[in-house]
Amino acid sequence: MQKLLIVCLLVLAVAIPTVMCSPKKPDVSVKDLLTYNKWRNTHQRVYLNEHEQLFRQLIFFENLAKVNQHNQNGNATYTIGLNKFSDFTHEEFKHIILNKKLGTRGQRLLQDTDGEDNSNTNDNNNQNNTNSTIAASIDWRNVNNVLNPVKDQGQCGSCWTFGAAGVMESFNAITNGVLKSFSEQQLVDCVHQAGFNSDGCNGGFQSDGVEYAIKFGIVTEDQYPYTAVGGDCQITDPTSDGFYPKSYKKLQQTADDLKSGLNFSPVTVSVDASNWSSYESGIFDNCGETTEQQLNHAVIAVGYDTDGNWIIRNSWSTSWGEDGYMRLAAGNTCGVLLDTLIVTA
């Protein structure tokens, strides 16, 4: 994984030369240096040469200054902190980690004269209420054997596979009483080769992952382990021992519809996560008005509190956020209501 990070950053050094020259030399204290050394040891950062080390160190100090400045704001509803992205520039984070394809679906919707997304042929698409009863709050983390431990997509834009696999895992657990960990790597390797638009680490759509599983089945992570890089598909025919969902649907773009879906099972949602890299705790509200063209990350909504704030499960490991989770402000914050999907059978 560390080697892959270095390769990705080298590619960006060529692809985004202005970014590579951007860090300004900040005022650095002894405390800052100690913080950097501790962070580097924790995350086991090894750089190619002294130039790369200095460049990453400057980025780290810039990000550290932003952390300190933000957390001194007594009016902020959330805190930010240091994590595995703290030596990334903002552009690198978006280029390496986020999903470059999700927003293209919104662009196609703008260009479609009737306003319908015809790319999905599932008969259950865009149905209304999943569950007519809406609880005041719900948190699937408090229900045994519905959610697997938080996973880590690594330096691969495969969030869509974690969104798809995650909702299939939870649906299977709720319906059949068995919690399995399904293979994101199978979706990374096989979905594009099966003729779908999604393209492994280059980004994709949760609906493609579920539709693929409907046709070919999805095996467990033990059978097809995650590597965080794309490869040749190891399953070319429908598998005899995989899980086969039968149908899914997309929810309407309202808070009540998402809450209704969450009363049935966890829901995979698309968001604009451009400002999420340093999130540590609290209720995140730093997105502005989000359109479908700005969606760039797939996550799983696992509940909401009595104030309507969403509980979001990410795929950036437990070292990010609140043990891998985020509390997202109520309403359509970060576009959370714009692209939602739930497995129904």
UniProtKB/TrEMBL annotation:
GO biological process: proteolysis
Ranges for domain Peptidase C1A papain C-terminal: 134-344
Chain intervals for the UniProt region annotation (Disordered): 110-131
Signal sequence annotation: 1-21
Listed Low complexity bias regions: 118-131
GO terms assigned for molecular function: cysteine-type peptidase activity
Domain Cathepsin propeptide inhibitor: 36-93
Pfam family, one: Peptidase_C1
Keywords, alphabetical: Disulfide bond, Hydrolase, Protease, Signal, Zymogen
Family the entry assigns: Belongs to the peptidase C1 family.
Record protein name field: Papain family cysteine protease
